[in-house]
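4.2 Preliminary Data

To establish feasibility before requesting continued support, the project team ran the inverse folding procedure on a target of 210 residues. The structure was first converted into the token representation described in Section 3, and no sequence information of any kind was made available to the design step. The complete token record follows.
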């Protein structure tokens, strides 16, 4: 069965988050147990923001987010990130977490950036798991760091039963995605919707109303 019934009373604008939330639920399964974990999320667009919410839902005790734009980081703050760091304006922002061979137990790399991955590996503790969510083409990999710290690097793509879990979580209100919804735009204003969605300084998630 590849169709999941949305329970009565669940607004469509909330149900529309099921697909990206399922992606992040699958990524969390790839990461392993998150209860009590210290988590880094690099790239705080919609997927990174949902990864933050999933990590919190799974019991992470600390979640730090990075991005190169202030708009998404402001949303991360509202979602409960312990720190939201702009690594463009503050290139050394992650250094406190890099001390003593690194801090984070789990990293969700959601930017697809080679620089973000390198920074994440530096901040990950020995034996950490890095889950690669972001797609960005070919990126350099700091193999020496990966090997010396015995870090597990895992790819994650799509989902299966997690889609049903996402619908259940959204219906029950266990994961609140409302802060991610920037605006619902009428279909007649589709061009404005796409322009808004493409502006990271103003928008996180934009939906079309048919």
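Position-by-position output of the design step:
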């Amino acid at each position: 069965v590849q169709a999941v019934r949305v329970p009565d009373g669940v607004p469509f604008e909330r149900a529309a988050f099921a697909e990206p939330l399922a992606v992040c639920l699958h990524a969390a399964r790839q990461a392993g147990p998150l209860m009590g974990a210290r988590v880094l999320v690099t790239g705080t667009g919609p997927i990174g923001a949902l990864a933050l919410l999933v990590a919190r839902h799974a019991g992470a005790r600390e979640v730090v987010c990075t991005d190169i734009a202030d708009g998404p980081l402001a949303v991360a703050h509202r979602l409960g990130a312990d720190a939201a760091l702009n690594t463009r304006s503050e290139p050394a922002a992650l250094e406190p977490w890099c001390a003593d061979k690194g801090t984070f137990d789990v990293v969700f790399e959601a930017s697809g950036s080679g620089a973000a991955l390198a920074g994440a590996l530096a901040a990950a503790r020995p034996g950490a798991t890095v889950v690669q969510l972001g797609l960005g083409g070919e990126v350099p990999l700091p193999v020496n760091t990966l090997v010396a710290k015995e870090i597990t690097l895992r790819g994650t793509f799509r989902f299966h039963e997690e889609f049903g879990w996402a619908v259940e979580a959204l219906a029950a209100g266990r994961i609140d995605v409302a802060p991610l919804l920037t605006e619902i735009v009428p279909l007649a204003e589709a061009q404005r919707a796409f322009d808004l969605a493409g502006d990271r300084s103003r928008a996180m998630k934009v939906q079309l109303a048919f």
